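A further point concerns the way the authors explain their paired sequence and structure data. For illustration, here is how one protein appears when written out as sequence plus structure tokens:
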Amino acid sequence: MDTTSPTAPSPTLSQTMRRIGRLAAPYFLRSEERWKALGMLLAVVALNLGTVYMLVLNNQWYARFYDALQEKNQTVFWREIIVFCEIAAAYIVMAILKFYLTQLLQLRWRAWMTRHYLQRWMADNTFYRLELARYSRQLHAPPDNPDQRIQEDMQLFTDYTMALSMGLLNAVVTLVSFVGILWTLSGTFSFTLGGHDFSIAGSMVWLALAYCIAGTVITHYIGRPLIGLNFMQQRYEADFRHHLVRVREYSEAIALDHGDAVEHRQLGRRFGAVLGNYLSLIRKQKNLVAFTASFSQASVIFAFIVQAPRFFSGAIELGQMMQINSAFGRVQDALSWFVDNYDRVAVWRATADRLTSFEAAMQAHARDTGALQRVPAEGSPPSLQASDLSIALPDGTPLLEGASLAVRPGDTVLLQGPSGSGKSTLFRTLAGIWPFARGRAQVPADAMFIPQRPYVPDGPLRDALAYPEPAERYGDAELQQALRDALLPALAERLDESDAWSQKLSGGEQQRLAIARVLLKKPAWLFADEATSALDPTAEHSLYQRMAAQTMAAGGAMVSIAHRASVGEHHAQRWTLVPESDGAPARFRMAQGQG
């Protein structure tokens, strides 16, 4: 269960802060950039303190300036104008430096977090295992839309963490700086109640505190639903974007199936969820804005109303009244930080919850390495050996139990069996990417696996051909010859052409491009999973001859999965996966001879 989902119990403030601390600590305390990051953070803190000090000087300036206006003292008036310009200039310089260093620190922090999480997400096929976990009862519940968490949530987290933490620091320092000023200026409030005289020192401070406590409690009550709604909004937006990408990727198949109406309904349903949740978010935000705007506007005249009797009685001058109003505004702003930033705190907390669940899922999968012992094959030349091999589906359904197999150099093996019997899953297990397997497997290091639907990256054709190795490792002549040998002569002169090749090339051309990789890299051991299913018989025969000849020349072996009988003529052995009739795991039946 995803403990950070909106349906889970809401974490306490201390739990939330611990989560945020665990997300922030690696960069500021353990990364290779920690000293530079801490230095920049201290500089931003110092500039925040400096800007607050400028506000204190500005508050003192208010009293002198408005007293000069009341007394019509032109000399003091112009002197204070010059003082104001000096204070304003210093404040502007500090504000610019604070903005620049804050943005730079956010950028560096986001860059480090993105690199750090990308490295962990891509390491040990974690990205693949997280997707499999959606169908597993054994693995930790996967996070939804990891791409969004890396691309969007990390930006939101770093931006909001810096903005809110510096804003809170600014509020605390402002409160400390101005509460003494307001206490001194507000004097003593005296009143009689029930025949007894009472006096309250620093009355304006207590009024500001009561005003803001009431505002904070009401704001939290009104805005609490925003946390869950923001969490779900990010999820619905990502789901809608993900389905749009799928429609683009499978555009031809959808068009051939005349599935545009179905996909339009699916997109409409997902977008409806986006709009519905956003409408709920708007309603809750409307209530919050209505209160915070009223709260803010009332605070503008609150201090004037309270101090009006003292001013009209002559107890205080205009300058002192303006200074009190300014100090009250600063104290009230500081105490109202939570009120003013509640909606941003809600987004920040939802983002932190999503990143925390992503972090927890990756940690869980890092600990769960599976029970399969996959080691490099020994011997010269090496052989493929597997013993006591058991394989299951993600939901726990067994496919194989206690199987043993061996492939020696020079062997050509065709693996067959009904669809769903576990042929491709066996290949995934031998490749070391299937986490639901146990036993022991020795696989030669110089092995290459070809899936039925190969991955073809966008970009220059030479990069797609050499993938995942850098294209610079091969010369143009080698790349061009591999394409010609794979029956793609028309592509041989287009190595530097960039395109979305997975959309540009047909299914058969993509399979031939994958075979061109084999002919280019010349692996000794080849595992081909329906690698020619989209090819015509003539092309299939020619390419299988070349692949078999290449693996034999390299002292290796070739193992194929295919339903076509014509593939059998290129293999000397046939293995068949035979499902048991009572639903028990499948077993091997091995037959020698020509396919």
About this structure: Confidence is low (pLDDT under 50) at residues 1-7, 590-595. The CA atoms of residues 47 and 97 lie 8 Å apart. The two ends are 48 Å apart (CA to CA).
